[in-house]
Amino acid sequence: MTTFDVTLADIEAARSRIAGRVRRTPAFESPEVSARLGRRTALKMEALQLAGSFKVRGVFNKVLTLSDAERRRGLVTVSGGNHAIAVARVAGTLGLDALVLMPKVTPRFNVDLTVKYGARVELCEDAAEAFAKAEAYQSEGRLFVHPYDDPAIIAGHGTLGLEFLEDVPDLTHVFVSIGGGGFMAGAAAALKAKRPSLTVYGVETVGAPTMTEALKAGEPVTIRATSVARTLGAPFATRRTMAAAGLFLKEIVLVQDQPVIADLSWLLQTEKLLCEPAAACVLTAAEKVAPSLPDDSVIGLVLCGSNLSLGDLDAWRKQAV
């Protein structure tokens, strides 16, 4: 199996590099979530990050490691979700040319945000066609920014783990959602490097079990996600992110869409924080696991993003009734 190639030093360098470019999002204990889980629980409010998710951490770190000549080539990426929005935001901030290849099923909300922040969008039949086109653009000279299989992207995401432990030093169990695995890899690498005794759980929805299927098969497996948690619907994990899962995770908890939508609504009502399903799912997972944890555990939930339309939320809630 591939060895994992992102170190604590890489993550700390990323933190210095992106300082002042991203928000240091708040983390605090929640009496309501603590009462619900029966254990002290802290929330990392990454849903308040610029461009609505953790993704700007990795993209800023990646782009700021490039030479001026590389940046002038223009960027190309594949994403229908938060990575697209983050690449657009970073490119717009730094004055770079960015092209985002999106599957046709991408929600209009995400397309519009990506264009608004400053990228050009090209719609493709599906993710497979988008990745193929990205390779073609790369061969023509553009610089491909992979959504999750890139050490610089992963190191940038790891900066969240450093912040969480600084704000809540006695964390014992942390829940992080998994799409392609880049975010989990960075955050878990930072948490485990700083606190080896800390336990990290990955979270996926039943309709987007990318990492679960890859680990079961012992190699990346292409999946077609059906979950409403669209930003978890990466078509495949990679050997790098699989290696991180093997090193850092105690297990991956699978949850159903319906309770995730209920928890999304509950968090909005209770914590006044809008979370997308890919964020709310960590609460759903923690509720399954918490009863088995020691009474003095301190649970950390990473609420990783907030990019969803209220129209989608209305539709999901009607289906759940």
Automatic annotation (TrEMBL):
Keywords: Lyase, Pyridoxal phosphate. Its cofactor is pyridoxal 5'-phosphate. Residues 21-305 form the Tryptophan synthase beta chain-like PALP domain. The keyword Transmembrane helix does not apply. InterPro entries: Ser/Thr_Dehydratase, TrpB-like_PALP, TrpB-like_PALP_sf. PANTHER family: L-THREONINE DEHYDRATASE CATABOLIC TDCB (PTHR48078:SF6), THREONINE DEHYDRATASE, MITOCHONDRIAL-RELATED (PTHR48078). This is Pyridoxal-phosphate dependent enzyme. The lineage of its organism: Bacteria, Pseudomonadati, Pseudomonadota, Alphaproteobacteria, Hyphomicrobiales.
